[in-house]
């Protein structure tokens, strides 16, 4: 019986990156032997065990056979006779198909070290085509390894294989939860745009997120968007949100904020009147299809609807500013409103040549929120005991007055 460290831990160690988790493969052992050694079984589809002391995962070497479409359609076979190379050949990419022996020797039967050096994602074998999740994983790796030490590219033969998989309908068999899981993880990587570029190039984006895919080629006014192309703009927005290390909710909102522009009548391009409201319905559509978590969905819907209003906020009167807060339920959920401002800031900075302009709307609206929150609604309620129908309007008037007072400190006039 021999054990090897395999997969991402070997890859990241060779890249000089921190190793988060270590997976092990066990050659020449049976489940019974593992149990006698104190390992605890956790695998459902095939034998995986937790080490009795380190609690790291140890999987018995295995082979697999495709039985139906999708990523669940596999039959796994484990046996003491399965070799290390037979186990590694079933893995997705050469850079993930290396093993590390106890003495520090790297076992690399498929050229993973060379592909690491050259920055290439290359499939190990045609077995790659049997699991559509591998398309999403490769795209996510592209987002992660965007500068370690250089941006990775996809080997031509691997891109061709992924296109064939898309054409064969393999991507259509993915369950929504897994698609969302991989997209969410990709959004949290260093350069999320690379994920969507890879998915778009192989055709998977059109099948998984057609609402996003159709934004490429849609023009915007050059005065406000020197990058012109809406798809390019959205990628700049998402990457800015990543650079700022914003939350998943903000990054997803950044990805979804301009979907409405994909439904604008080409006759009025590059203008996109009403795209915010059209975008709301498209965001809801995406979130329902992919079963996106509520927090991500709600912020994305709000951002699609309000990002234009955030941009115009300094021209709004106090009553309109309070209306904006009310639509966003900002009094009850102030942190979510502040997240909206982060998404809107990303929208503003995600423009070629305009990345360093000021975005005073963020601080302005944060202060507007604080002014509105400063109103003591409980005290006002006490002043209207026995008149419950008047409390809501009285609180609203007080909040508008507080916002007006703040705006006057900025030198604003004509606030009625």
Automatic annotation (TrEMBL):
The keyword Transferase applies. Nickel for phosphatase activity. Its EC number is 2.7.7.72, 3.1.3.-, 3.1.4.-. PROSITE patterns: HD. Gene3D superfamilies: Beta Polymerase, domain 2, cca-adding enzyme, domain 2. Residues 230-331 form the HD domain. The keyword Nucleotide-binding applies. Mg(2+) binds at residues 21, 23. GO terms for molecular function: CCA tRNA nucleotidyltransferase activity; hydrolase activity. It holds the Pfam family HD. It catalyses: a tRNA precursor + 2 CTP + ATP = a tRNA with a 3' CCA end + 3 diphosphate; a tRNA with a 3' CCA end + 2 CTP + ATP = a tRNA with a 3' CCACCA end + 3 diphosphate. Signal peptide: none annotated. Keywords: ATP-binding, Hydrolase, Magnesium, Metal-binding, Multifunctional enzyme, Nickel, Nucleotide-binding, Nucleotidyltransferase, RNA repair, RNA-binding, Transferase, tRNA processing. ATP binds at residues 8, 11, 91, 137, 140. Transmembrane segments: none annotated. CDD domains: HDc, NT_ClassII-CCAase. InterPro entries: CCA_bact (IPR012006), HD/PDEase_dom (IPR003607), HD_domain (IPR006674), NT_sf (IPR043519), PolA_pol_head_dom (IPR002646), PolyA_RNA-bd (IPR032828), tRNA_CCA-adding_enzyme (IPR050124). CTP binds at residues 8, 11, 91, 137, 140. Belongs to the tRNA nucleotidyltransferase/poly(A) polymerase family. Bacterial CCA-adding enzyme type 1 subfamily. Monomer. Can also form homodimers and oligomers. A single active site specifically recognizes both ATP and CTP and is responsible for their addition. Catalyzes the addition and repair of the essential 3'-terminal CCA sequence in tRNAs without using a nucleic acid template. Adds these three nucleotides in the order of C, C, and A to the tRNA nucleotide-73, using CTP and ATP as substrates and producing inorganic pyrophosphate. tRNA 3'-terminal CCA addition is required both for tRNA processing and repair. Also involved in tRNA surveillance by mediating tandem CCA addition to generate a CCACCA at the 3' terminus of unstable tRNAs. While stable tRNAs receive only 3'-terminal CCA, unstable tRNAs are marked with CCACCA and rapidly degraded. Comprises two domains: an N-terminal domain containing the nucleotidyltransferase activity and a C-terminal HD domain associated with both phosphodiesterase and phosphatase activities. This is Multifunctional CCA protein. It comes from Undibacterium cyanobacteriorum. The gene is cca.
């Amino acid at each position: 019986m021999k054990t090897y460290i395999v997969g991402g831990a070997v890859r990241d160690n060779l890249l000089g990156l921190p190793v988060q988790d270590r997976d092990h493969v066990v050659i020449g052992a049976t489940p019974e032997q593992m149990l006698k050694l104190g390992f605890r079984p956790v695998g459902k589809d095939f034998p995986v065990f937790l080490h009795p002391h380190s609690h790291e995962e140890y999987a018995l070497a295995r082979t697999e056979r495709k039985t139906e479409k999708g990523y669940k359609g596999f039959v796994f076979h484990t046996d003491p006779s399965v070799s290390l190379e037979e186990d590694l050949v079933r893995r997705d990419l050469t850079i993930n198909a290396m093993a590390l022996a106890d003495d520090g020797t790297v076992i690399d039967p498929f050229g993973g070290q060379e592909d690491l050096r050259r920055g290439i994602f290359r499939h190990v074998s045609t077995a790659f085509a049997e699991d559509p999740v591998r398309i999403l994983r490769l795209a996510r790796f592209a987002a992660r390894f965007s500068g370690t030490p250089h941006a990775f590219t996809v080997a031509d033969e691997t891109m061709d294989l992924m296109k064939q998989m898309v054409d064969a309908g393999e991507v259509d068999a993915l369950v929504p939860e897994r698609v969302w899981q991989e997209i969410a993880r990709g959004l949290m990587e260093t350069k999320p745009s690379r994920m969507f570029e890879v998915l778009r190039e192989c055709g998977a984006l059109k099948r998984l997120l057609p609402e996003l895919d159709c934004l490429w080629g849609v023009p915007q006014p050059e005065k406000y968007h020197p990058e012109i192309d809406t798809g390019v703009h959205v990628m700049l927005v998402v990457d800015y949100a990543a650079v700022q290390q914003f939350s998943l909710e903000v990054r997803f909102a950044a990805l979804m904020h301009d979907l409405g522009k994909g439904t604008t009548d080409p006759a009025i391009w590059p203008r996109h009147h009403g795209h915010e409201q059209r975008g709301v319905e498209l965001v809801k559509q995406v979130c329902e299809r992919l079963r996106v978590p509520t927090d991500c969905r709600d912020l994305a819907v709000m951002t699609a609807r309000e990002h234009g209003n955030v941009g115009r906020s300094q021209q709004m009167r106090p009553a309109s500013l309070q209306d904006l807060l009310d639509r966003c339920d900002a009094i009850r959920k102030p942190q979510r409103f502040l997240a909206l401002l982060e998404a809107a800031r990303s929208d503003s900075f995600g423009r070629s040549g305009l990345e360093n302009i000021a975005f005073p709307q963020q601080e302005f609206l944060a202060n507007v929120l604080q002014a509105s929150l400063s109103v003591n609604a409980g005290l006002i309620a006490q002043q209207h005991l026995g008149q419950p129908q008047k409390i809501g309007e009285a609180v609203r008037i007080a909040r508008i007055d507080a916002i007006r007072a703040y705006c006057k400190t900025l030198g604003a006039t004509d606030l009625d």
